Amino acid sequence: MNFLDQMKKRYTVKKYNPNGKIGEEQISALKEILNLSPSSINSQPWNFIFVNGDILKKQLAEKSYFNKGKVLDSSHLIVFQVLRDTESFEKQIEENLPEGSINYYNTMVKPQGETAIQSWLAHQVYLSLGVLLSACAAMGIDSTPMEGIEPDGYDVILNSDKYKTLFAVAIGERDETDANQPELNPKSRLKAEKVIIEA
Ligand SMILES: Cc1cc2nc3c(=O)[nH]c(=O)nc-3n(C[C@H](O)[C@H](O)[C@H](O)COP(=O)(O)O)c2cc1C
Q1: Ligand 1 within 6 A of 39 CB?
Q2: pLDDT tens digits, residue range 19-53?
Q3: Which CATH number applies to 3-195: 3.30.360.10, 3.40.109.10, 3.40.50.300, 2.30.40.10?
Q4: Which of 45, 103, 182, 183 has the CB geometry, 3.0–4.6 Å to 121, for a possible disulfide?
Q5: Which positions fall inside the Nitroreductase domain (predicted)?
Q6: pLDDT per residue over 134-151, tens digit each?
């Protein structure tokens, strides 16, 4: 199947098969793929926590509102986090990035102030969400991106200090009765003519 067809078939899973486990080889590939995500100036202000154990999954499910069942029945939950404070981010880039990239940050991003810096950092993490969802589509892995979680509750459970949670993605195998699959609930999008503009 070509990539366009894979993207037509992917969808947000609402009900997982609790017995559908993703193999270690695919999980390792997803880890490497996430680590390859692009980011502005190669800033990489993120952490990706792979949760596999039942106890932790149950605790996080309690902080996942209407997404509770998806977290519980998924094979793995991936929690996407961003560096909590700007100072640690600046230290990280000082240690890892070439001078030109640091200069870009100091002249183009930093002068915009704390709120804009935090927003810019979060944008980078969202890019990696796109990478993961596309990779899952290509690999035949079902997924659910979830902002409908309690990030502060996640941070307490995960003992997150340096990083804070932004969102999570459940991955696994759809339940065959899942009513959201495109065969039962066709994809709904704005018309391409409205969104894709030829200039
Ligand atoms: C950042 C983000 C957060 C989302 N949060 C949730 C969520 O908490 N629970 C849920 O069931 N779906 C969630 N969704 C799924 C969207 O509703 C879904 O992607 C959109 O309706 C398009 O449908 P499709 O993914 O099935 O093509 C989220 C999607 C994104 C990209």
Answers
A1: no
A2: 999 999 999 999 999 999 999 999 999 999 999 99
A3: 3.40.109.10
A4: 45
A5: 8-172
A6: 999 999 999 999 999 999
